[in-house]
Amino acid sequence: MIVKKFEAETMPLVMKKVKEEMGVQAIILNSRKKKTKGVFGLFKKIRIEITAAIESEPPETGHTVSEKDVPPRTSSEAGGQQRKETVRPLSSASAKAAKEQTEISAFLEHELNPEILQEIRREKNGTDPFWGRVRDHLHKGITEIPATSRPGNNKYIHLIGPTGVGKTTTAAKLAANAILDDNLSVGFITTDTYRIAAIEQLRTYARLLNIPMEVVYNLEDYRKAREEMKDKDLVIVDTAGRNYKDSSYVSELQKIIDFDEEADTILVLSMTSKFKDIEAVYKRFSEVPLHSLIFTKMDESGSFGAAVSLAVKYKKTVSFVTTGQNVPDDITTLPLSELTEQMLKEIETSE
What we know:
By secondary structure, this protein is an alpha/beta fold. The chain contains eleven helices and eleven strands. It folds into two domains: 1-59; 156-350, Rossmann fold (3-Layer(aba) Sandwich), CATH 3.40.50.300. Necessary for flagellar biosynthesis. May be involved in translocation of the flagellum. Residues 154-345 form the SRP54-type proteins GTP-binding domain.
């Protein structure tokens, strides 16, 4: 595959460059706005940069007719007829490819994993509308995700994830719903000793919900806290949010928490993040057994492609999504199939 970057002042101009050099079969891998340096740091201009790719060899299907494919004619009239026969299928193929490329750009804009789009383009059912092929591919992937028990069927829930995704607020929502809807007795454990504010936030929720809370610093503390709460129906463990790029973070977490089979460990991610970022987070935290995913800040996100892509690629259930800061209201179960349909609708209306 040949990959190249193009840039111009506007999207139509840069797309024209892509089509002129790579043709209509080019795949758009990424697009972004960039600023020129300007003079003395002033008068900066915005330019559009696109990263495009094309197969190094022409694909077997979708062959474009050229003059060498047509038997030679001897008269000028035959030559004119040859040009007519050549142009007609080329025009039709170009229109279809252009529409497909527009749809691909829309999916990329909404953070759908480029690997999914490339896989769909390589599939044999190339005569079907691309939009429908994407929908079918995603729903097929959803059916292949193993069924998991509802979080809370196990006594312990570990909420893990990077900083800033809203783990503590999510813990409060889960606890409040378990108390109000399921009439369960609940307790909190927190390992987030890096930020005093985090402890106080969870302590406030514990006081409002009238449930116990334990702060732990090591594995011995954790096991003692579990013993203290052995009579509870559900214990929610809130963990520290740290920079996921720190390779020691997960290993330190394993020194504090016993990730055993009695617990559901859920990775909490923000729906406002890009696919490449949440995939990097997932790979880091997959060192521990992950039960499912929770996506927060759905109300702040304009695209759900990253969430759908991650769940489908790694075959993980999305247990909950959160839609605001209100406790306990702004959390809900949303089947991945429905989240996918919402994403497709968002893309369709934005075209």
